[in-house]
Structure formats: structure tokens, C-alpha cells
Amino acid sequence: MGGFPNFTLGSLRVILGSSPKQLQLGTPSLGQRALSRGCAMQQTRMLNSTFFMRLTRFVSFFLAAGLLSGAPAQARQCGQASWYGPGLYGNKTANGETFRPGTMTAAHPYLPLGSWVRVVNRDNGLIADVRINDRGPYVGGRIIDLGHGSAQRLRVTESGLANVCITRI
Questions:
Q1: How many CA atoms lie within 13 A of 34 on its CB side?
Q2: What is d(CA 150, CA 17) in angstroms, rounded to the nearest whole number?
Q3: Would you give per-residue pLDDT tens digits along the chain (169 residues)?
Q4: Longest Cα pair distance anywhere in the chain, in angstroms?
Q5: Which end of the chain has the smaller Cβ count within 10 Å, N or C?
């Protein structure tokens, strides 16, 4: 089924910072005092900005963890692929790994880091499963940058570019 994880209202309150204890009546909070002074609009703005700041943090966590993504699990994308490697070995990738030659990795602009995609070279029919560990490509018109190992498997290293289709697996 996929989609957003099913949370209870109580767990959302804890994650967003509004526990039932904070919602109980007792000594007036700063917000309640502002309301009693006729500053309802200011209190609403303050509560809304706090809520949306926490909600943004909450959603960002799930995006970073790969539990939410901009693309459905079986989304298919076709276009041009390039490869990268020489001169970049030893550098850190977007997920913090050291970029090494021969790895079955790739760079994609928005798929979650750590996700796997199946890349099919439409020019020669070769297939490779690669892990997304970096961001790119930074050249217009390309959908994926292949690491050296995956580019060799798909025989892209000679020409530098290939027509591919990628499917998230």
C-alpha cells in the first residue's frame, strides 16, 4: 500500500511537541496571557509558525530517511545517462560515503539516498541495479549519473552517454 505511515494523534502530538500535559488547563501560559490581553492574532501567528516549523522538521526527517519520496515506488523515467568517476575518487558523496572506482552507485537529483534503481541501457539492452548515493547530474537533459562500476556494466564508459530507462526497485 505505501504512502504516509499511520500515526495516532498522540504520537503526532509527541513528535510535534504538543503533549497532552501541555494541553491541560492550569497556570496561564504566555500564549494564554497574550490572548487575555486581546492579542489573539499574535498568539495565532505564534502557534501557527511553531506548528509549521515542527511539521517541516517532521516531514524533513521522513524525506531524509527515504520513507516519503517525490516519486512512487515503481516510477519509470527514461532519458540520457552519463557517468562520472576519474578525478572524483576519494571525495565524499552526498550521503557521506567515500567515492571509489568500480562501485555500483549513481547520482540522481531527487530519489532518496540509499534507494535502488534498475537501469536499462536502451542502446544495447544491458541491465544494472545501482544504489543512489549522490546528487546529480548537473548537466541539463540527463536523468542519472552512473558511478564507474555501473557505467562499465552498462558499457557506457566508451561513449560517455547512453539512452536509459530507470525504475525504482
A1: 12
A2: 44
A3: 344 444 444 444 444 554 444 444 455 555 555 555 555 555 555 556 666 666 666 666 555 555 555 555 557 999 999 999 888 888 899 999 999 989 999 999 999 999 999 999 999 999 999 999 999 998 888 999 999 999 999 999 999 999 999 999 9
A4: 73
A5: N
C-alpha cell at 111: 530519489
Residues spanned by the domain of 119: 76-168
Cα distance between residue 14 and residue 71, in whole Å: 28
Q: What is the CATH number of the domain that holds 98?
A: 2.40.40.10
Same domain, residue pair 100 and 157: yes
**Count of domains forming the chain:** 2
User: Around Cβ 94, how many Cβ atoms within 10 Å?
Assistant: 13
Q: In angstroms, how far is CA 145 from the centroid of its own chain?
A: 17
Residues 103 and 146 in one domain: yes
Neighbours of 5 (CB within 10 A): 9
What whole-number distance in Å separates Cα of residue 156 and Cα of residue 142? Answer: 14
pTM value is 0.58
* Beta strand 76-83 pairing with 142-146: parallel
Q: Following CA atoms 90, 95, 101, 104 in sequence, which dihedral angle do they give, to the nearest 10 degrees?
A: 180
